[in-house]
Amino acid sequence: MNDFSPVSALRMAPAPSRVRLDWLAQPVRLAIIGAAIAVLLGIVAYPLAYLLKFSLTGADGAFTLDTFGTVLHTPGMFAAAGNSLILVAWVVTLSTLVGTALAWLVARTDVPAKGLVVACAGISFVIPTFITVVAWIFLAAPNSGYLNRLLMDWLGIASPPFDIISFGGLVLIETIHLYPLVFFSVLSALNNVDVSHEQAARILGAGRLRSALTISLPLVLPAILASAILVMLDTLSSFGAPSVIGTMANFSVLTTKLYDLLAFPPQLNLAAAIAVPIVVYTLLCLGVQRLLVGRDDYRTLGGKVTRTQPVALGRWRWPAFAASLAVVFLSAVLPLGGLLVLSLIQVLGMPIDAGNLALSHYRQLFDESFGTFAAFENSMLLALATATLCAGLAVVCAWIVERTRLPGRGLVTVLIMIAYGFPSIAFGVGIMLGYIDAFHGTLTLLLIAYAAKQLPVTFVLVRTALKQISADLEEAARIAGAGWLRTVWDITLPLLRVSVGIGWILVFSLSIRELSMSVLLAQTDTQVMSTVILQLIADGSIEMAAALSVVVVAICLGVMGLVWKIAGRAASLHG
Fold this sequence. Notes:
0% strand, mainly alpha
């Protein structure tokens, strides 16, 4: 039997040559690319250089390598490193499986309630992990969780069925928070793949499973690997959930160990020394990704994706729907429902009935004297600025990497991804040391930190989409007389519209709830909603923290709906 397929044809075809640039003849292009590289060096390379300096500096300020030996001999460091690696392995595996399967169901099949799956994936990503922990402790703490108590009464059992305060509970919380990274990345890639290739395989006799495994999966493999690396690095640098769960369950990970070193008196050199191996690990991940997908060409030639009827799942339609609902329920409905109930409870620990539920926390929250308006304005301004800055930088940087022969262009990818792999707390220290004199007490300091950490999210989505678009389309426009700027504006950007829009939404959501760096960098006049929520939790006002968290989720969902509406309208105009 002939195993020839459209994918093999694409791989056998020679990759189109990269755009050859006449830099001096294109001053606008030179200025835009130069500005993007300068910004990237300023927000990433400069703070990282400070961290590297401190990792090689002793207590007396002299150069030394003893800091690494001191870190290795810190009590509990090896156990924390082992816990981090195990956590990463579980979360990456589960997030990749769940995210990829859901993306295929939504993009390619007739499974019901696709909009609900997409919306709930966004909700689960929007809810901050340290708030998700609060909701799950409220629901599934072994002795006091409302869900445990309810099930124990209903089922007549003596022991609680769930224990969220455990390593397994941490895996669950991180997975339901991070699988949307894989889901949205693969969904965007699938939307850019022409389904006529799968149709051709079906006509030649391939079944649904074989066409998915031999056509769809290889074409979206870059998106899967890239998003899996994002999940890996995000899990490795996660702090909020491991801090809460680890403290209560008596275990540590690398980020919580690092935070201990930043407590008074701060040991910046040791904290930086912990971060250096994480950078090495990030470089290894990027090397593996390049090795696995760098030799193949995953592009299809075409400016418009063919739309056909979705794959009929037949008898598997309703089991697939049930599995989707289970993910939706665990990742969004249950924690969000827990937050809503918690925000309405008047007396925590008392039965949940009409007499114990009220809107008093929301009334207090929107009282001008409470002081949340300034934090709300700061969060919105930072989220909008960060998402827009990252979208612009991602397009330019992805174009540099995929469309030019600029010497050292591979370092652009490395620099972007290293920032994401750095623990947010350690990176916040680098931002503070590098820019505290110039931007102390301003939102600019937070904007630099947010943009550097969130740029990889948009960059991965945009670069993946750009890899699937043949450079021949741009070259054809150039031959017809269009300049570089018009070619990018009229050809490249419309084809990247969905990926840029999804990246913008994700970065907005990440920025509006960023905590680790905000705790270090925010001052009295630059407080954001996440720091206010953390302060409310520290003060014991859990219900108020839940109410403010519900407001954050509502804002993010409103922005998400608006962007999707605009993107859908644009798609209909170009369709």
